Amino acid sequence: MLRQHQAVITQHEKRQRQFDKLVDEWKRKVVDLQTELDNAQKESRLNAAEAYKYKAQLDENREVIDAIRRENKNLSGLLYFAYKDSKIICCILTLFLHSFIGRIR
Fold first, then answer.
1. Residue 10: CA atoms inside 13 Å, Cβ hemisphere, count?
2. Residue 74 has what pLDDT?
3. CA-CA distance, 59 to 54, in Å (whole number)?
């Protein structure tokens, strides 16, 4: 009877050691997963900050592009009027030269 009790106790102790090993293994897995989660959250925060910075730069670049387009449109209009004015000036100079040459002859 004593041997049976000792065998049962030995068997329970063996099961307890196996259970303790299993619990320790799961504790290590939990710690590893918690570390992985912490790292992923840090990386996510860094990526979000970087994305926010890029969005701000994109908005700023869009404003600059819009300003350049407006300036380009204004300069294009001025260039058109300068071209028209230069044609008028050429016509006036041509008339003046014809008139001047006519007086010289």
1. 6
2. 86
3. 9
List the Cα angle 21/23/25 in 5-degree steps.
70
**Quick one: CA dihedral 29, 34, 38, 43, positive or negative?**
positive
Question: What tokens appear for 30 in the block?
Answer: 């939990």
* Residue indicated by tokens 């380009």: 72
Residue 66 neighbours by CB distance under 10 Å: 10
pTM > 0.70: yes or no: no
Longest dimension (CA), the chain: 151
Q: How far apart are CA 104 and CA 84, in angstroms?
A: 30
Q: Tell me the C-alpha distance between 73 and 70, whole Å.
A: 5
